Amino acid sequence: MKNRILKLIICLSLAFCSLLPKNMIIDLKADTPDASNSVYLYTYNGSTYNQDKRSFPLTLGQVEYTTKSVIHNYIVMEIYPYEFYNGDYLKLNFALDILDDLGNRRAVHSAHFTIYNQNDYTGTLPYELEITESGKNQYSYEYRGRVENLDKPGNSIRIQIFLADTTVSTTGVKFLYFNCDHDSDGKTHGLLDSIITMITYIPTGIAEGLSSFFGAVVSAVNGIGSAITSALSSVGSAITSALDTVKTTLSSVINTMSTAITNTLNSVSSAITTALTDLGDFLISGIQSLFVPDDDFLGNFFTDFNELFSTQFGFLWYPVEFCTSFLNEFKNKSSKSASLKWAEIKDPVLGLPLIPEGEINFTSIRKDLDDSVSIVGTGLSWNTIFYYFTDAILYLGLIMLASRKVKEMLDK
Amino acid sequence: MIVKGLLNVITSILELFFSLLPDIPEMPSTIVSTMNIVRNTITSNLGLLDLVIRPTTLTRVIPLLIVILNLERIWKVLMWLIRKIPMLGMS
User: Which of A94, A279, A336, B37 lies 20 to 30 Å from A37 when distance is taken between CA atoms?
Assistant: First the structure.
């Protein structure tokens, strides 16, 4: 436990140290055509130096560079941030404020970056910075580029500022060095770099470790939360499913019971109805059989009755038989044609025919009358109208006769 | 059943009564054939009624006419039968 706390303290200390600004060196130089007449005054953080070339431990700050009234084609400033290697990525932020002898701000044309190592040329940064901004009180620039084609590692950057108008004397230069970052490709460059890299990476490792640890904690918490949520969801789903099952079962049971009760009630109702119907039919058939004899019995009875009377009464019963046969003929007469027929009449003594058998058919006459004469608008023939008329007379006569009979019965 | 029993009783009584009497001879065949000719002449000409009366009307009217003419007798027979039923209480 103590070792872990000690390691943590060491890591935090290293991380704090890594966050401190690195010491960087800036060297301002003025490349003048008449250097002997030039006086260089450097002012940095309130101190003034009159050296031609001076190294300052700089982080961020402002350097004022003052000369006599000389014509400058370009101004050189040198920065010593750290060693550069091929593949390093540089991002340099700086600002310039250059005044001429009259105090006017001078325009800058471009900047050229060269890497040196102890004043030995090592290489040129691949791209020049084209100055395009103008009209501002203080020009801010940013250079981005990857270090390439170095003969050996560099430890300084010379920024060569080319002025736009080379005919105007420059009296002062203000250089604001903001920042110079580089992105190493991960190579080891000696013991110091290794230490720096280690110091750089230890906090990173700690941070990554802490990040990983907290990430793991967060992941674990998220996992616990997800597990709890999943479990609660599963429990909820199970409860919902169980409730659905119970609801379905209850619904099924209720439906079954309802159906059974309905069927039972229907069966009882049907049985009661059937019983009442059967009872009614039984009573009706009983009463009917009590009073009304069947058809076969009546038919046979009248046949036997007629036979008995015919045998017993002989010729006295013949008028009844004649009337019965006449009525039967009349009953079966519907197929007879409307015609007048007569039989042959013979001489009863000699047997000679007096009047031959004959027939006068009125069917064709009636048909011709029906086809030729009809009441307009009704479609009825005269014969049909006559039928209605005779029907009305007959039924009316029956009604009058029945009313008179009933009246006589009631009067008695 | 009541009507049936009554008719059977009537038939039995008549048979018993007629058995005591001699049979009367039948109608002579000559008269029967002559009456048949008359009947056939009449029935074969019943089609003439179609000219003035619908045949179905006749088959409906004639039974009704018989019933109406004998309505009083039918009523008496019917009431006599009904009074014989003790459960109706009309005796």
Answer: A94
Give the gap in angstroms from C-alpha A291 to the nearest C-alpha of chain B: 6
Both structure tokens of A64: 């004022």
CB contact under 8 A, A314 and B11: no
Q: Are A71 and A77 in contact (CB under 8 A)?
A: no
Q: Region A138-152: what's the mean pLDDT?
A: 75
Q: B9 to chain A: nearest residue by CA?
A: A301
What pLDDT is attached to residue A47? 58
**How far is residue A302's CA from residue A298's CA, in Å, rounded to a whole number?**
6
Question: Is a pLDDT exceeding 90 seen at residue A399?
Answer: yes
Q: Over the range B37-66, which residues count as b (16 or more CB within 10 Å of their CB) and which as e?
A: eeeeeebbbbbbbbeebbbeebeebeeebe
| A172 neighbors A65 (Cβ within 8 angstroms) | yes
Cα distances from A118 to residues A74, A79, A153, A161, A364, in angstroms, run 22, 12, 10, 21, 154
Distances, alpha carbon A169 to alpha carbons A27, A69, A163, A165, B79, in Å: 21, 5, 11, 9, 161
Measured between alpha carbons, how far is A174 from A178 in angstroms, rounded to an integer? Answer: 13
Nearest CA in chain B to A392: B57
Distant-in-sequence, close-in-space partners of A29: CB < 8 Å, separation ≥ 6:
A52, A53, A75, A76, A77, A78
- Percentages (nearest 5) of helix, strand, coil residues in chain A: 50, 25, 25
- Could you give the count of Cα atoms lying within 13 Å of A176 in the half-sphere of its Cβ? 12
Mean per-residue pLDDT, A263-280: 90
Place of tokens 């027939």: A359
Contacts of B1 in chain A (CB under 8 A): 289-291, 293
How is residue A302 written in tokens? 């009248």
The CA distance from A97 to A172, in Å, is: 8
Can you tell me the distance from the alpha carbon of B91 to that of B78, in angstroms, rounded to the nearest whole number? 13
Looking at residue A227, the DSSP 8-state letter turns out to be: H
